[in-house]
Amino acid sequence: MSDWKASVEPMVFPGKIAVPYTWTVGSTLSKFYCELRDNGKIWANKCPSCGTVFVPPKVKCINCYRDPNIWVELPGTGIVESYTIVRYEEPMLHPRKAPFVYGLIKMDGADTCMVHLIDEIEPEKVRVGMRVEAVLSENREGNILDISHFRPVK
Amino acid sequence: MERVAIIGVSQTKYMQNNPLTFAELVYEVTTKALEDAGITVKEIDNVVSVSSDFWDGRTISSMAISDASGAFGKDITTVEGDGTFGALYGLMRTLSGSFNTTLVVAHHKGTESNMRGITNTAFDPLVERKLGLDAISSAALQARRYMTKYGLKEEQFALVSVKNHGNAKRNPLALFPMEITVEDVMNSRKIADPLKLLDCSPVTDGAAAIILATEHAAKKLVPPQKCVWVKGVGHCADAFRLGDRDLADTRALAAAAKRAYSMAGIQDPGREIDLAEVYDAFSYMEPLWLEGLGICPEGMACEHLERGRFDFTGQLPVNPSGGRLSSHPVQVAGLAEIAECALQLRGEAGDRQVEGAKTALAHGVNGMCGQAHCVWILGK
């Protein structure tokens, strides 16, 4: 029955889907990115009900579903809660050549973590609990890479 | 609530670069599930497909497999998520009173695309996506957080990989049955510290299907020994953004499990469950989820693993199929777990049969680092 299948040359069609988007950023994150781009400041927002401070800021508090409408400026420092040394190359996605480090950074003055790059240190020397500070990019365009990376506090 | 039975199950062999098309995979498992139940496609009232447009590289991906799933002339809907969530929707449809029987079918051909590129698009394009995060690098952050919180070691996670690849040797459908040691895992290529190659599941092509039926329909359509009963289901989601969660906190899973146990009347899951299929996309996930499931106290699953509690011959075999570490057809995986549990409860699991299995647990996840969980308790 399947004899005829054995002699068929298996074909594969290569393809690629490239579709442009213009994603609306919304007021909450637009404020965050404008402050970052224009003034080099990292802002968070705070829930008036439970007091949780979110960075990047959120439209609604995850606990209370209230508007976290109290804006708080952060010092841009924090503590490494977790990290990974990425060893594989993915030039389409990665802002750096491997090996490089992603950190989960518990931000001073906030209750949440930011995921970002950790640099200016040998990857193997990064530790949980290490104090780090945000380093701003010189040419800021209003996105998450306006923070170039975090580096150990000297 | 009316009782619902799983009356037929099927899976493909799990492989990479499967020469079948999406639709051919779906034809295969639909046909086999119908044969397993001993019914025809006419007896299927509606279809829930499980697929992802991004993985498939086509929009409204369920439409392209509607003929293959026998949905012509019927109602077909889609769940874009893990198969456990597709089965959950199938269960709800069956309970709605509108349908006596529901076919839930999942397909995946991840080896045709780029896992890192696709999982990167799961992140918020306004925040983390630009950083290049993907399923592996985010999981690595979770693994390290879990190690830090409870003082765990990479060698303990490696043991999960050793166990599950070993279990796969009893499963003819598994992609990577392997006899390996903790040392092999530790010496495998570093991917994203602390994860090495053998801590990571392989993206795998495959499909699975289950047929759900109301008690009334099940009794009419199939002999009693074919029926595996849904005893309890629970699901719960955590915050989307990684930084808004403690990645070592399993609160969403604990809530999902509590709901499933309460529905199934389970008070002591560690003793009452005979086997569990737990979503081990990465080695560290198995112990983390076992803690969330309340099968061990927090931070203790690795120690229980080392004592052999979760071995194939242990007190509570976990992932006797070989788990996702041995074959990981994304989104199919949770449905495959349910199919595996059904075979175990019917006593038809071949070499991987857990003796005397009466109650089984299947657990699926959606989202990065287990954002959402779905827990199933099945029984005879």
Brief summary:
Chain A contains two helices and eight strands, in the order ααββββββββ.
Determine the strand fraction of chain B and express it as a percent band: 15-25%
Termini distance of chain B?
Answer: 17 Å
Structural class of chain A: mainly beta
Q: What's the total count of β strands of chain B? A: 11
- The total strand number of chain A stands at 8
SSE order of chain A in H/E notation?
A: HHEEEEEEEE
Question: Can you describe what's shown?
Answer:
The complex is a heterodimer of chains A (154) and B (380). Chain A is mostly beta strands and 154 residues long. Helix content of chain A is 12%, strand content 31%. Chain A has two helices and eight strands. In chain A, the strands form two sheets. Chain A has a five-stranded antiparallel sheet, with no helix packed on it. Chain A has a three-stranded antiparallel sheet with strand order 2-1-3, covered by helices on one side. The longest helix of chain A is centred in the first third of the chain and has 14 residues. Chain A is extended. The N and C termini of chain A lie far apart (73 Å). In chain A, 32% of the residues are buried. In chain B, helix 4 packs across helix 15. With 380 residues, chain B is an alpha/beta fold. In chain B, the strands form two sheets. In chain B, strands 3-2-4-7-1-8-11-10-9 form a nine-stranded mixed sheet. In chain B, strands 5-6 form a two-stranded antiparallel ribbon. Chain B starts with a strand and ends with a strand. The model of chain B has no long low-confidence stretch (mean pLDDT 97). Chains A and B meet through strand 4 and strand 6 of A and helix 5, helix 6 and strand 5 of B.
Fold blueprint:
The complex is a heterodimer of chains A (154) and B (380).
Chain A: H1 3-6, H2 26-39, E1 42-46, E2 53-54, E3 70-74, E4 77-86, E5 100-107, E6 113-118, E7 131-136, E8 147-152
Antiparallel strand pairs in A: 1-2, 1-3, 4-5, 4-7, 5-6, 7-8
Chain B: E1 4-11, H1 22-37, E2 46-50, H2 53-56, H3 61-64, E3 75-79, H4 83-95, E4 101-109, H5 115-120, H6 135-150, H7 154-167, H8 182-187, E5 190-192, E6 195-196, E7 205-214, H9 215-221, E8 228-237, H10 251-264, H11 269-272, E9 275-277, H12 285-292, H13 301-306, H14 323-326, H15 333-346, E10 359-366, E11 372-379
Parallel strand pairs in B: 2-3, 2-4, 9-10
Antiparallel strand pairs in B: 1-7, 1-8, 4-7, 5-6, 8-11, 10-11
Helix pairs in contact in B: 4-15
